[in-house]
Specification:
Strand content: 15-25%
Shape: globular
Number of strands: 10
Largest sheet: 6 strands, mixed
Number of helices: 6
Length: about 260
C-alpha cells in the first residue's frame, strides 16, 4: 500500500474555482476570526478542559466567519444562493450548500471541521477519522483549527494556522498507518461498508471503516498516523507570549492541583 497523496477535484469540475477560493478563505480565516467568549477565573487544573467545553462554540464561530467571508470565496456573486451550514453528528459536519426551492439543499462540497486546543494535556489533536474513502468527495476537506486564549491563560479564543488536507486522503491515511506504518502482530484487516456515496443520509451511520482487531480503540486517530507530523512540530514550537507551546503544556501540567486562579497570573 503506497502512501496516500493529496486529492483534489478535477480542473474541469464546474465549481473548481470556488473550491480554490474556499481553501484560501480557510487559511485567511484566523485573521478574520472574532469571539465574544472571555475566560477568566479558572483554576489552573481546569484549563485543560477548555477544548471539550468550547469546541462546538468555536467550530460554530468558524462557520459563521466563513459565511462572513463571502467576498473572498464569491467575489463575483455566482453563489448568492449558497452558504456554509453545520450538520450535527454526521459526515461532513460542515456543508457548503445551494438552497433550493421548498427549503431543500444541494451539497457542493464538505468540510470535516475540528478544533485543537494548543495547550491541551494530550499535546496532540484528538481528531478521529473513521469515514470510509467512498463517502468522501474529491472536493471535501478535513480541516483542523488550532486555538488558544489570547492571553494564553485567560481571555478570548484566538485561531492559528489551520491544517488542511483532503478528506479522502485523511481516510486513506489512517488505513495506511494501520496496515503499513505501525508495528503489530495483530490482524490489520479493515472492513468497509458497501454502497457508500458522498453526502450520505444523516440518519445513516454505515459510512465508517471498522478494523477487525482494535481492542485499544486506536483506529482513526489522524494525528497519530504521521500525516501531520511536520505541522504538529511547527505548532508545538509556536510561541505564545514569548513561550513555546510545549513549555506551556509542561507548565500547566505542573500547575494541576495548585488551586491558583488563571485570572491571577
Amino acid at each position: 500500500m503506497e502512501e496516500p497523496q493529496e486529492v483534489e477535484p478535477s480542473d474541469d469540475w464546474e465549481h473548481k474555482e470556488l473550491y480554490d477560493r474556499v481553501k484560501s478563505a480557510i487559511f485567511a480565516l484566523p485573521s478574520r476570526y472574532d469571539s465574544d467568549i472571555n475566560i477568566e477565573g479558572l483554576d489552573a487544573e481546569d484549563l485543560f478542559s477548555l477544548n471539550s467545553v468550547l469546541a462546538a462554540t468555536i467550530e460554530d464561530n468558524v462557520v459563521e466567519t466563513l459565511n462572513e467571508m463571502r467576498s473572498v470565496w464569491d467575489p463575483d456573486e455566482k453563489y448568492a444562493d449558497c452558504s456554509f451550514i453545520r450538520q450535527a453528528q454526521t459526515f461532513p459536519d460542515v456543508l457548503f450548500v445551494r438552497h433550493t426551492e421548498g427549503g431543500g439543499i444541494e451539497p457542493l462540497m464538505g468540510i470535516e471541521l475540528k478544533g485543537w486546543y494548543l495547550v491541551s494535556k494530550e499535546k496532540e489533536p484528538s481528531f478521529r477519522f473513521k469515514i470510509t474513502p467512498d463517502a468522501c468527495a474529491p472536493q471535501d476537506l478535513a480541516v483542523l483549527f488550532p486555538w488558544a486564549l489570547d492571553n494564553v491563560l485567560s481571555g478570548s479564543p484566538e485561531l492559528y494556522e489551520p491544517y488542511v488536507t483532503s478528506a479522502k486522503r485523511a481516510s486513506r491515511y489512517v488505513d495506511y498507518y494501520w496496515k503499513e506504518l505501525r508495528t503489530t502482530d495483530l490482524d490489520t484487516t479493515i472492513n468497509r461498508p458497501t454502497g457508500v456515496e458522498p453526502y450520505p443520509d444523516p440518519k445513516s451511520d454505515k459510512i465508517h471503516d471498522r478494523p477487525v482487531d482494535d481492542s485499544g480503540n486506536n483506529y482513526g486517530r489522524l494525528a497519530r498516523s504521521g500525516i501531520m507530523d511536520d505541522y504538529k512540530e511547527r505548532m508545538w514550537n509556536k510561541e505564545l507570549a514569548g513561550i513555546r507551546v510545549e513549555e506551556w503544556i509542561s507548565f500547566l501540567k505542573n500547575s494541576e492541583g495548585s488551586q491558583v486562579k488563571i485570572g491571577e497570573f
